[in-house]
C-alpha cells in the first residue's frame, strides 16, 4: 500500500477529525515508521488544519519522529531507579555492540539508542522501550542478545516473549487490590440506591431542571461520594464530590455533553500503580468511570493512557468490548433504555506535562499538551469546551467501591481527613519492590519495614515533584494532612548520593518542560546546568544561592504545577543533604561556568586524541590525582 | 460606573469594568504593568510572566486574572521587579540578542523593558542556541534568534489576517519554536504578505521588512523619546 493510502485509511477511520490528531499521528507512525514532511502535509490537508499546527503538534511529543528514525528505536528508561540498577553501563554496552553514539541513528538507518523519561517499570528495571514496546529486567546478556537480533533484523514480534513480560508485583492488598470485584456490581448498587430512577435520568442537569424522582439515583450516588470523603488520588487531593457536583451543575449548550476522563498518563517518575490497576483491575477502573458518568450525567468517556503503556491498549480494548457485551457500557446500560455511556482509549506520546488535567484535555483535542489558563476549569469548560471531570485511575477505582459498599464504609478506612486506601509504588533500595496498598495514615517507617528496606537514607515520595524525607521524618504519615502522595515511593540507602538523585530529576524536568512560560522553559534548563556544573566540580557557594533564587522564582511565577514543583527535589536535598553538594564545591566564592578543558572536547573528538597533551592542566586537587 | 468596581494597584484605586483583566484596567488608566506577550488588541496569552503581580499576597499573571472588586494588587514593588528582571535575563540568555546590530533596537519591547527594569547584564550563562534565519520571502526576513515566543504573530495571522501562517509548536527550551505553514517550512512558500497584521506585530526583531534597515536615526526611535513605562496608552507596534 502506498504511503498516502495508509494515511487516508487512518484518516477515514478517524472521520478526518482534527481533534483526533494525536491518535492519527501515532497510528500513521506505527505503519510508516516516521512522520515525513509529505506525510504531515497530507494529514493537514486531510483534516483541514493549518500545516504548521500539525507539524507543531507532532514536534511536541517525544514519541513522534519528524526525522527518520532507526528501524529499531531503543529507548532506555532513565529514572534514578533505572540508574541505580545500572542502566547507564548497559546502554553504553549496547551502543558499543552496535557501533553507535547515543541519540544518533546508525548510518544504515537500522537503529538508534537513546534515553527516555521513566517508563513506569521501576520495580523490574532496568527497563527500555523497543519500537515503543516495554521491555523489563535488562541484563548484560539481554543486551548482547538484543543487539544480535537487531543486527540480524529480526522483527520485534519474534523476540523472546519473556523480555516483554511485565509483573504486577502486588505485595500488599487492602480493598482495591483484593481482586474480588464482580463487574456490574457497583453500578447495580448505585442504581438500586434510589427507589425511582434510571440512568436515563442522569442526563438531567440538576434538581433545578428536573423532577426530584428522576435524579434520585445520581444524587444518591453523589451523596455516597460526599459521605465517603473521597479525594483525588493524583496527588492534589481535591474533593471528588465537589468536582463531580460542579460538572453535574455546569450548564450544557445545545449539542454538548458531559465528559468523564480517566487520567492514566502515569508519568511521574517512580509511579507504576496505575499500570497494575489497568493490567489486572481494569473492570474496577472502568466501572468507576461509569459510576461517575451516572452521577454527573456524562455520556462520553476517555481513558488517556500514557504512550509507554502502549502494550496495554489491546487488552484494555478487550475489557471494554466485554463490558459492552455485558450491558455495562453502550446504549442501554443495565437494560435501562436511553442510559448510554461509552469509553474510548486515547494514547499519549511521551509528554509528562499531559498528566496535568488541562494539558491532557488539549492532547485529547489533538493539540500540544500545554496547560490552559485557569479559570475556567475543566468541570465547566473542558474537552471541546464541554463540562468535563478528569480523575486519576485510582480515584475511579475507589469510587466504584464507594458505589458498591457505600460512603460510610469507605470513610471508616484511613484517617479522618484522608479516607480509604492509597496504593504505593515502591522501588529503589528495597528487598521487595512492587505495589503496596495501605489504609491512609500508615507511617513511612512501616512501609520501609514491610518492603524490606535497610540502612535507608531517604525516601522520595510522590516522585520528583513531591517530597524528599530524611530519617528523622520516617514517622510521618502517608495522608493528605501530612505527606500527600500520588503514589511513588523511591527508597535510597546510605550508599546513595542524594545529589545525583536531585541531578537526575533536574534533567527530567528540563526535558519535560512544555516551554510555554518563561520561568519553567528557561529555569528548568538553568537549574540542570548548575547541577551539572556542580557535578563537574566547578560549583561554588554562589551556585547554591542561584539554585535557591531560581526555586523562589519558578515556584511563584510558573504557569502550571510542573514549573512550580520542578525545583522541589533540589530544594529538599539542599536543605536535608547539604554535604552531598558541599563536598563537590570548590572553596571559592565564584567559579565561571566556562571550562577551558571542556571547550577542547570537540577538538579532541575531531582529532581522536584523549592523551594528557590534549588536555589543559588539571583543575582541582581531585582531578590532579586522577 | 459602579462605585464598588475598583481595586487597589500599588495603593491607588483603579476602576474597572467587570470582565476586564487587571492589566486591561491598569492600561486603560495609564498605569504601566511590565509585559511582553500581552497586546491590547488580542486575548491574553499568559506565557511571558513578566506581568506577574501579587494579588492579595499571591502571585498571578495580571493579563489572565480578572479584576475583582476590592482586590489588593502589588505591581512595581522591588520584589516583583526583581523577579521580572530575572525573567528578562532568562530571555536574554535563551536567545541571541545583540542589540547594537539589531534593526529593532530602540523600537524593541524586550530592550525597552530591560531598560525600564534596570537590567545591566544577562547574569546567567548564555545558551547561544543555533537558530536558523529564514530569508526566503521576497519582502520579509525572519530572524528567530530574537524570538521570545510571545505568539503574537500566530494570533495576528489567525485572527486578523485569517491565514494561519504561524503556529507555536514543539516542546521545551530546545524544541519550542514557531512553525511555518508550508511543507518546506519556508515563509516564501506561504501566502504571507508585508501588509499582513502579523508582519508588524512582532515586539522584538524577528519579523523584519527587507531593504528597510535602520530607517529611523538614533534619538528619534520609539523608546529614545520616552521610556516604555510612559507610553502606556500607545499601542505596541
| Most extensive chain-chain interface | A-B, 44 and 41 residues
Q: What integer is the average pLDDT of chain B? A: 95
Tell me the distance between the termini of chain A. 59 Å
CATH topology (level 3) name of the largest domain in chain A: Rossmann fold
Sum up the overall morphology of chain A in one term.
Answer: globular
Number of β-strand runs of chain B: 10
Radius of gyration of chain A: 25 Å
pLDDT averaged over residues of chain A: 93
The CATH topology of the largest domain in chain B comes to: Alpha-Beta Plaits
Biggest beta sheet attributes of chain B: 5 strands, mixed
Question: SS-based structural class of chain A?
Answer: alpha/beta
Can you walk through the features of this model?
The complex is a heterodimer of chains A (626) and B (237). By secondary structure, chain A is an alpha/beta fold. Chain A is built from 26 helices and 14 strands. Chain A has helices at residues 3-13, 21-32, 37-47, 51-60, 80-84, 87-97, 140-151, 185-192, 216-228, 240-249, 273-280, 282-296, 313-325, 357-364, 393-405, 407-411, 444-450, 498-512, 518-535, 541-557, 561-565, 568-576, 578-582, 596-599, 601-607, 621-625, and strands at residues 72-77, 111-116, 128-130, 133-135, 170-172, 258-264, 298-305, 342-347, 388-392, 421-428, 434-439, 456-461, 467-470, 488-493. Chain A has a six-stranded mixed β-sheet with strand order 5-11-10-14-12-13. In chain A, strands 2-1-3-4 form a four-stranded mixed β-sheet, covered by helices on one side. A four-stranded parallel β-sheet of chain A has the order 8-7-6-9, with helices on both faces. Chain A is globular and about 85 Å long. Chain A starts with a helix and ends with a helix. Chain B folds into two domains: 6-76, Roll (Ubiquitin-like (UB roll)), CATH 3.10.20.740; 100-225, 2-Layer Sandwich (Alpha-Beta Plaits), CATH 3.30.70.20. Helices cover 20% and strands 15% of the residues of chain B. Chain B has six helices and ten strands. Chain B has a five-stranded mixed β-sheet with strand order 2-1-5-3-4, with no helix packed on it. A three-stranded antiparallel β-sheet of chain B has the order 6-7-10, with no helix packed on it. Chain B starts with 5 loop residues before the first strand and ends in a 12-residue tail after the last helix. The model of chain B has no long low-confidence stretch (mean pLDDT 95). The interface between A and B is large, with 44 and 41 residues.
Amino acid at each position: 500500500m502506498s504511503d498516502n493510502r495508509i494515511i487516508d485509511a487512518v484518516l477515514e477511520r478517524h472521520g478526518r477529525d482534527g481533534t483526533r490528531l494525536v491518535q492519527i499521528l501515532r497510528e500513521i507512525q506505527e505503519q510508516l515508521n516516521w512522520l515525513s514532511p509529505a506525510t504531515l502535509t497530507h494529514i493537514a490537508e486531510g483534516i483541514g488544519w493549518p500545516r504548521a499546527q500539525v507539524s507543531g503538534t507532532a514536534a511536541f511529543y517525544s514519541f513522534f519522529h519528524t526525522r527518520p528514525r532507526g528501524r529499531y528505536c531503543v529507548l532506555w528508561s532513565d529514572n534514578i531507579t533505572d540508574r541505580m540498577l545500572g542502566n547507564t553501563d548497559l546502554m553504553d554496552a549496547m551502543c558499543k555492540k552496535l557501533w553507535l553514539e547515543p541519540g544518533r541513528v546508525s548510518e544504515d538507518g537500522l537503529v538508534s539508542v537513546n534515553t527516555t523519561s521513566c517508563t513506569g517499570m521501576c520495580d523490574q528495571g532496568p527497563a527500555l522501550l523497543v519500537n515503543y514496546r516495554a521491555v523489563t529486567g535488562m541484563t548484560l546478556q539481554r543486551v548482547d542478545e538484543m543487539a544480535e537480533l537487531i543486527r540480524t533484523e529480526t522483527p520485534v514480534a519474534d523476540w523472546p516473549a519473556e523480555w516483554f513480560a511485565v509483573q504486577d508485583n502486588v505485595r500488599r492488598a487492602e480493598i482495591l487490590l483484593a481482586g474480588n470485584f464482580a463487574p456490574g456490581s457497583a453500578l447495580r448498587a448505585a442504581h438500586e440506591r434510589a427507589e425511582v430512577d434510571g440512568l436515563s435520568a442522569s442526563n438531567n442537569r440538576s434538581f433545578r431542571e428536573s423532577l426530584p424522582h428522576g435524579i434520585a439515583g445520581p444524587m444518591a450516588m453523589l451523596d455516597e461520594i460526599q459521605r465517603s470523603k473521597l479525594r483525588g488520588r493524583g496527588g492534589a487531593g481535591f474533593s471528588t464530590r465537589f468536582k463531580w457536583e460542579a460538572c453535574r451543575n455546569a450548564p450544557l449548550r445545545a449539542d454538548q455533553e458531559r465528559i468523564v476522563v480517566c487520567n492514566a498518563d502515569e508519568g511521574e517518575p517512580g509511579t507504576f500503580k496505575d499500570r497494575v490497576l489497568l493490567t489486572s483491575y481494569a473492570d474496577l477502573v472502568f466501572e468507576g468511570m461509569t459510576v461517575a458518568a451516572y452521577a454527573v450525567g456524562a455520556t462520553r468517556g476517555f481513558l488517556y493512557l500514557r504512550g509507554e503503556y502502549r502494550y496495554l491498549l489491546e487488552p484494555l480494548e478487550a475489557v471494554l468490548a466485554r463490558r459492552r457485551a455485558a450491558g455495562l457500557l453502550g446504549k442501554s446500560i443495565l437494560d435501562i433504555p436511553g442510559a448510554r455511556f461509552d469509553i474510548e482509549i486515547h494514547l499519549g506520546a511521551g509528554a509528562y506535562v499531559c498528566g496535568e488535567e488541562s494539558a491532557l484535555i488539549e492532547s485529547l483535542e489533538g493539540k500540544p499538551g500545554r496547560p490552559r489558563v485557569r479559570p475556567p476549569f475543566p468541570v465547566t469548560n473542558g474537552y471541546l469546551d464541554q463540562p468535563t471531570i478528569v480523575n486519576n485511575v485510582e480515584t475511579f477505582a475507589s469510587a466504584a467501591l464507594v458505589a458498591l459498599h457505600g460512603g460510610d464504609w469507605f470513610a471508616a478506612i484511613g484517617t479522618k481527613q484522608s479516607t480509604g486506601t492509597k496504593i504505593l509504588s515502591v522501588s529503589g533500595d528495597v528487598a521487595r519492590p512492587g505495589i503496596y496498598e495501605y489504609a491512609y495514615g500508615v507511617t513511612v517507617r512501616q512501609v520501609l519495614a514491610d518492603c524490606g528496606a535497610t540502612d535507608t537514607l531517604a525516601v522520595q515520595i510522590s516522585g520528583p515533584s513531591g517530597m524528599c524525607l530524611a530519617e528523622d521524618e520516617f514517622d510521618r504519615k502517608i495522608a493528605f494532612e501530612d505527606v500527600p502522595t500520588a503514589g511513588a515511593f523511591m527508597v535510597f540507602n546510605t550508599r546513595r548520593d542524594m545529589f545525583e538523585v536531585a541531578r537526575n530529576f533536574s534533567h527530567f524536568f528540563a526535558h519535560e518542560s512544555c516551554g510555554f512560560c518563561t520561568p519553567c522553559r528557561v529555569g528548568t534548563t538553568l537549574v540542570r546546568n548548575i547541577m551539572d556544573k556542580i557535578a563537574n566540580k566547578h560549583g561554588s557557594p554562589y551556585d547554591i544561592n542561584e539554585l535557591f533564587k531560581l526555586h523562589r522564582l519558578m515556584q511563584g511565577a510558573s504557569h502550571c504545577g510542573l514549573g512550580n514543583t520542578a525545583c522541589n527535589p533540589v530544594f529538599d536535598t539542599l536543605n536535608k543533604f547539604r554535604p552531598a553538594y558541599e563536598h563537590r564545591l570548590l572553596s571559592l566564592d565564584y567559579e565561571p561556568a566556562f571550562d577551558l578543558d571542556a571547550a577542547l572536547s570537540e577538538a579532541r573528538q575531531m582529532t581522536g586524541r584523549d592523551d594528557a597533551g590534549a588536555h589543559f592542566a588539571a583543575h582541582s586537587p581531585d582531578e590532579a590525582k586522577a | 460606573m459602579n462605585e464598588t468596581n475598583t481595586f487597589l494597584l500599588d495603593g491607588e484605586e483603579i476602576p474597572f469594568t467587570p470582565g476586564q483583566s487587571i492589566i486591561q484596567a491598569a492600561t486603560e488608566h495609564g498605569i504601566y504593568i511590565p509585559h511582553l506577550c500581552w497586546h491590547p488588541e488580542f486575548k491574553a496569552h499568559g506565557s511571558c510572566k513578566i506581568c506577574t503581580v501579587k494579588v492579595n499576597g499571591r502571585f498571578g499573571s495580571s493579563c489572565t486574572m480578572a479584576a475583582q472588586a476590592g482586590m489588593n494588587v502589588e505591581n512595581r514593588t522591588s520584589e516583583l521587579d526583581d523577579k521580572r528582571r530575572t525573567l528578562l535575563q532568562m530571555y536574554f540568555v535563551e536567545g541571541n540578542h545583540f542589540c547594537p546590530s539589531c534593526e529593532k533596537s530602540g523600537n524593541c519591547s524586550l530592550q525597552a523593558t530591560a531598560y525600564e527594569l534596570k537590567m545591566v547584564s544577562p547574569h546567567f550563562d548564555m545558551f547561544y542556541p543555533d537558530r536558523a534565519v529564514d530569508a526566503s520571502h521576497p519582502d520579509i526576513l525572519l530572524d528567530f534568534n530574537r524570538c521570545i515566543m510571545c505568539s503574537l504573530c500566530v494570533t495576528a495571522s489567525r485572527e486578523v489576517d485569517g491565514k494561519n501562517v504561524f503556529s507555536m509548536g514543539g516542546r521545551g527550551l530546545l524544541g519550542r519554536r514557531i512553525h511555518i505553514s508550508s511543507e518546506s517550512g519556508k515563509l516564501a512558500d506561504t501566502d504571507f504578505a508585508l501588509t499582513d497584521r502579523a508582519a508588524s506585530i512582532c515586539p522584538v526583531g524577528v519579523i523584519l521588512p527587507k531593504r528597510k534597515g535602520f530607517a529611523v536615526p538614533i534619538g528619534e526611535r520609539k523608546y529614545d523619546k520616552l521610556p516604555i513605562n510612559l507610553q502606556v496608552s500607545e499601542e505596541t507596534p
